[in-house]
Amino acid sequence: MNRVTALVRAEWGPLYRAVRDGIAAKKWRAIPVTLTAVCLTALMQYVQNQEWGYQFVQNLGSVRAEEPLWLALLRTPLSLFVPALDLPVWGALGQILLVFGIAEITLGWWRMLLIGYVATLAGTLYARFGIWLGEDRPLGLPASDAQVVDTGPSAAVVGLAVYVCWRYRAWFTMALVVGAMVVETVIEDNLAGREHLAAIVAVLLLCALSALRQRRRSGMWSGPGAGSGSTTEVRRGSGSKRPPSHS
Question: The domain containing residue 88 runs over which residues?
Answer without folding.
Answer: 3-213
